[in-house]
Amino acid sequence: xxxxxxxxxxxxxxxxxxxxxxxxxxxxxxxxxxxxxxxxxxxxxxxxxxxxxxxxxxxxxxxxxxxxxxxxxxxxxxxxxxxxxxxxxxxxxxxxxxxxxxxxxxxxxxxxxxxxxxxx
Length: 120
What we know:
By secondary structure, this protein is an all-beta fold. The chain contains no helices and 11 strands. Strands 2, 4, 5, 6, 9, 10 and 11 form a 7-stranded mixed sheet that branches. It is elongated.
């Protein structure tokens, strides 16, 4: 059973930086789109950033210029470098990936979530 394992969350003061990482725990054939979503208390889950296997990226307007998404296809790992963090970035951050298996089966997976807290 494949799971997405996230790391790198924590607490930081406004203006600080954090780096999130996410990779599948088991063997996969390939991963298409990988992304990060976040959900703040009382709010809907929203897309933060996504990246295709070819490296094409998409960002929420609220994080453009501050966050950078990247991936290492050899390691099936996606990263989110977060800089100039603001209190409004506080949320649980979830990794998301469309995983392809050798059988041809594909499905979307979610990580368990990692808390990011930014204090003013």
